[in-house]
């Protein structure tokens, strides 16, 4: 009888211990559940925050790229517009006046030339009237003044190192005088003044085609300058 009571008591004791153990297990699992929930919540927050942050950054980059592209395009367009050629002036050209290689005849005038050589590294443009003035070396006659307004003043682009040329037609002989005085004209100029459009005049020597000194011998006032053509 005592043995049964002892056995029963032992069973009850074990049952109590078992129940106590279960209670402890339940309490231990609760923090785990809370931790799991917190982790899940953090992960959710992280998940929702990360795409938003990344998307925002990506959008910023795209916007920056667009802005850069737009700015770059505008700059390129402006540069292209600013690429218009500069005018040919005293600063970027060299001038030369060539005496006619052959004398005039009663049927055909003598033909000299004005040469404009571009000495810069970029294209320059001649547009407008080019003026030519010749003064007699002795000052015995009025100067001869003319331009190419009738011959043509359309724009002519002259590349770096290239030359534009205009013909100068005139009479260099006096057909009314004696044979010995045929080459005696009112204006005999060893120098002439040439002014490019909207530029100051430059005095240059009159030269022959080979480079030797020449004379711009003008009989009469009919001196004409043609339009320029680039070579």
TrEMBL record:
Residues 24-87, 137-156 are annotated as: Disordered. The keyword Transmembrane does not apply. It holds the Pfam family DUF4232. This is DUF4232 domain-containing protein. InterPro entries: DUF4232. PROSITE patterns: PROKAR_LIPOPROTEIN. Keywords: Signal. Residues 73-84 have a biased composition (Gly residues). Residues 88-228 form the DUF4232 domain. Residues 32-53 have a biased composition (Low complexity). Residues 1-18 form the signal peptide.
């Amino acid at each position: 009888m005592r043995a049964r009571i002892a056995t029963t008591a032992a069973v009850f004791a074990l049952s109590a211990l078992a129940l106590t153990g279960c209670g402890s297990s339940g309490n231990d699992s609760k923090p785990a559940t809370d931790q799991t929930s917190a982790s899940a919540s953090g992960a959710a927050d992280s998940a929702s925050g990360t795409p938003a942050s990344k998307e925002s950054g990506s959008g910023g980059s795209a916007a920056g790229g667009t802005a850069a592209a737009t700015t770059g395009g505008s700059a390129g367009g402006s540069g292209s517009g600013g690429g218009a050629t500069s005018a040919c002036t005293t600063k970027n050209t060299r001038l030369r006046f060539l005496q006619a290689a052959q004398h005039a005849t009663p049927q055909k005038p003598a033909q000299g030339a004005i040469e404009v050589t571009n000495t810069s590294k970029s294209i320059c443009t001649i547009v407008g009237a080019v003026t030519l003035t010749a003064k007699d070396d002795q000052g015995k006659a009025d100067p001869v003044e003319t331009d190419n307004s009738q011959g043509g003043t359309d724009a002519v682009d002259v590349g770096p190192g290239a030359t534009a040329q205009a013909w100068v037609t005139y009479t260099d002989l006096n057909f009314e005088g004696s044979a010995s005085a045929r080459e005696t004209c009112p204006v005999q100029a060893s120098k002439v003044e040439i002014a490019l459009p909207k530029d100051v005049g430059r005095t240059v020597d009159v030269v022959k085609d080979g480079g030797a000194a020449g004379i711009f011998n003008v009989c009469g006032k009919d001196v004409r300058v043609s339009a320029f053509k680039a070579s």
